Amino acid sequence: MEKSIYFRFTPALKGVENLGKSVNFRFTPALKGVKNLSKVALFLNQFFYQCMDKNSLKSDHMWKGASPQIFSNAKKLRGNLTEAEEKLWLAVKNNQIEGYKFRRQHPLNIYIADFYCHSLKLVIEIDGGYHLEEEQRLLDEKRTNDIEFQGLKVIRFTNEEIMLKLPEVIDKIKMFIKMAS
Fold first, then answer.
1. Which GO terms describe its molecular function (predicted)?
2. For the chain, what are the domain ranges?
């Protein structure tokens, strides 16, 4: 049985021009040996990201033009935190670190940041074991570059750092705050 994936892009994607009312795509594995449709989805997200007005990405807007679908996905992720995310959230919520407000699972354009502090322009990412795989490392590098292009800073911690060395993680975040101030 042939599986298909459908995409519908609308002008609600800020900065994407010449779409008219909407554009529909249908991809099937018959397309030149495409085996993994999620890779097609990733490619299309990256393609449309490259088409966007880069000035809107560098704006001070907190969500950097995130679509309603990204907001919906972020809401689902907030209800399903990993153990490491939950532990860090308990340490940063309610302005506990130097009085700065952090948000969890925060939409940023086509991405969802694990944690985000708008006043610091700081994204904190927590990486599980699969982030050590070569393909995922390349995707993480691309993601970091895209987010930093938006005028934000990204710092990464592993699940193990959060679970075993939380005070050191908090100290690193505080050190970043000192340097940013």
1. endonuclease activity
2. 1-52, 60-180
